[in-house]
Amino acid sequence: MAKEKKPAQSFLPEHGPIDEQGREILLSLKNVDITFGKGDSAVRAVKDASFDIYKGETFSLVGESGSGKTTIGRAVIRVNPCAAGEIQYKGVRISGKTSKGLDREVIRNIQMVFQDPAASLNERATVDYIVSEGLYNFHLFEDEADRVRKVEKIIEEVGLLPEHLTRYPHEFSGGQRQRIGLARAMVMEPELVIADEPISALDVSIRAQVLNLLKKFQKERDVTYLFIAHDLSIVRFISDRIGVIYKGDIVEIADAEELFDFPMHPYTRSLISAIPIPDPQLEKNKVLFTYDPSVHDYSEEKPELVDIGHNHFVFGNTKEIEEYKRLRASGEKVKSITILEPGAAQAVKRAEEELPQGEYILDAPVHDTGSLWMMILSFFLPLLGIIGGFIYKHFNYIRNYKACIKGALIGLAVLGVILGLFGLMLLFAVL
Fold first, then answer.
1. Which domains does the chain have, with CATH numbers?
2. Which of 20, 131, 173, 276 has the lowest tally of Cβ within 10 angstroms?
3. CA distance between the termini of the chain
4. What stretches of 57-152 adopt beta strand conformation (E)?
5. Angle, to 10 degrees, between the axis of helix 398-430 and the axis of helix 372-380?
């Protein structure tokens, strides 16, 4: 059978560069921009992102949906190209055009665990083939017996059984499918694993098991993780350092406990305040800290990611950075969660109930769908459609209003054409 082949020439050094504190830099992003689309329709999904990931650590990237977390992860595995800047692995640039040999080494050393385990597995392949595919592609086994041994070992390590190897992905639960995806990545013995929200689609009871598996592999194999998530409570458990991203900008980077004790950027504070408290009464009386981007004035001076000490980086202009440094130097922990007294919480609730209704964007009518049937009915009965459209508009049913008016206008236009043709036919008949 296939012999294990080792590359005649390695395109990557054995170790990455060492920083001032003696830590090995495994992955480095330098002023990375990622853009989708061209011209006026171009969207800058990631803006000037820069951070390092050290060997053996878990670096977590957190932010709300659409902030650019997954975009960065996919850029590391070269799915998303960089519009500017570069990504280095062990000091070697891996973004942009690379040689075939370097490309194979990077694929071998950087693996990804995807968010949706069902979509990331080939439904037509058995678990045995799914886990073995990387071994086949890189000839990482001496003979068939060695391949079977490696696959069975990794399957057992992730908590499945050897008899599961003959089954197909649809025969497993979500947690089991995620274990298969983890086995597929770990059987390659990678140095860096990008875990893209690997537990967000799983039950709460299963999440802890998958997280413990990740920590187990890190301890036994010295694996480095780029852990992408939106839940800071999970991130605190697994991370060594945390980077916070907001609309493509890295707004804060710090050690895990440092970030929770001294969250400087207001967006970070808003994420921390959203963590549920495991006490119903306290959770009921909690006041969420809401981030308002308008508090920043960047019209005169553009913000930068600056080290304020204690290996803590914050995004801001000169005035903001000075205030962040002052707060950090004071040593007083920054409070992100406010718990109201029971009486005060009830007063706030009453005040919210007394607010005028129907004046908010989120109060849009539920049945404002702009149904095709409204357009068709207005086409055949245009006058009725116009009347109905303005009634809908009065009650803020904007989609229904547009559907009625559009159908009525088309109907009137067609009626006008028919009447015009009928008039011409009468004219020719008379002449």
1. 25-261 (3.40.50.300), 262-295+318-355 (no CATH), 371-430 (no CATH)
2. 20
3. 93
4. 58-62, 84-89, 92-93, 110-113
5. 30
pLDDT of amino acid 89 = 95
Residue that is written with structure tokens 């406990």 in the block: 257
Q: Measure the CA dihedral 354/355/359/363, to 10°.
A: -70
Residues 6+ apart with CB under 8 A from 31: 48, 49, 50, 84, 85, 86
| 378 contact partners, CB below 8 Å, separation of at least 6 | 384, 385, 386, 388, 389, 403, 404, 405, 406, 407, 408, 411
Please write the tens of the pLDDT for every residue from 25-60.
999 999 999 999 888 788 999 999 999 999 999 999
Contact 160, 171 (CB under 8 A): no
φ, ψ of residue 154 in degrees (nearest 5): -70, -35
Structure-block tokens of residue 81: 């190209």
SS (H, E, C) 81-107: CCCEEEEEECCEECCCCCCHHHHHHHH
Query: Is the separation of the CB atoms in 349 and 377 below 8 Å?
Result: no
Question: What are the tens digits of pLDDT across the range 259-281?
Answer: 999 999 999 999 998 888 888 88
Q: Which two tokens stand for residue 399?
A: 């989609």
In order of 280, 284, 285, 355, the CA distances from 349 in angstroms are 16, 10, 10, 10
C-alpha distances in Å from residue 17, one per residue of 23, 94, 102, 233, 395:
8, 15, 18, 32, 64
**Residue 171: CB atoms within 10 Å:** 11
Q: What is the mean pLDDT of residues 249-259?
A: 94
Half-sphere exposure of residue 302: CA atoms within 13 angstroms, side-chain side: 4
Q: Which residues contact 221 (CB under 8 A, 6 or more apart)?
A: 186, 189
The structure's pTM equals 0.75
> Coil, strand, or helix at residue 221?
helix
What the block records as the tokens of 162 is 């050897």
Mean pLDDT in residue range 371-375: 84
Question: To the nearest whole number, what is the mean pLDDT of the chain?
Answer: 87
Would you say residue 5 has pLDDT above 60? no
Least confident interval from 77-86, 242-251, 378-387: 378-387
Smallest Cα–Cα separation from 264: which of 206, 201, 217, 332?
332
* pLDDT band at 353; cut points 50, 70, 90: low
Residue reference for tokens 């983890």: 182
